[in-house]
Amino acid sequence: MKKELKLKVNGQPYDIFVKPKTLLVEALRDHLALTGTKRGCNSSSCGACTIMLNGMAVKSCSILALQANGAEIVTIEGLAKGTELSPLQKAFLDHGSYQCGFCTAGMLMATTALLTENPKPTKQEIKEGIDGNICRCTGYNSIIRAVTAVVKGEYKEAK
Ligand code: FES
Ligand code: FES
Predict the structure, then answer these.
(1) CATH number given to 87-151
(2) Is residue 159 very low, low, confident or very high in pLDDT (cuts 50, 70, 90)?
């Protein structure tokens, strides 16, 4: 039997009904049509499904949707302000930090959470911030360079 699930996602309230076994990634993609969050391994290994849940980076395949009841969630769709990309999004573009792009939403959410918690991470801390996210085609150096450019203040937040 479906149960009620209330979420605030990217600032917008949602009130939906999901099955008890529905994963949060399924609720976001299949019920709310927020398909920017990717579903890769479905077993907490790849990080493609990373979102921010109450300010923390979380793999949305690793929790049931109902466990997030009442939570505030940010997905990749919530990073830009209107048409203005976030500093990390701009830096990823400029530094070629993606090829197929499958990992990119998760990488951006993991690094957004990292910089929210620690605006001046060292290179080692950046590496640790993405150590739960697998990229199989770009490699990690261009991602680390993009995050480093944001840390150095080369990209400004949209007003
Ligand atoms: S799909 Fe969630 S960690 Fe891979
Ligand atoms: S850009 Fe293809 S997996 Fe990372």
Answers:
(1) 1.10.150.120
(2) low
**Quick check: CB of 45 below 6 Å from ligand 1?**
yes
- pLDDT tens readout for residues 99-151: 999 999 999 999 999 999 999 999 999 999 999 999 999 889 999 999 999 99
Q: Which listed ligand is nearest to 100 at the C-alpha?
A: 2
Q: What is the distance in A from the centroid of ligand 1 to the CA of 103? A: 10
Q: Which residues, 6 or more positions from 132, have their beta carbon under 8 angstroms from its beta carbon?
A: 47, 50, 57, 59, 110
Would you say domain 3-78 falls under CATH 3.40.800.20?
A: no
Element (H, E) at 111: helix 104-117
Q: For residues 30 and 60, what is the distance between their CA atoms, to the nearest angstrom? A: 13
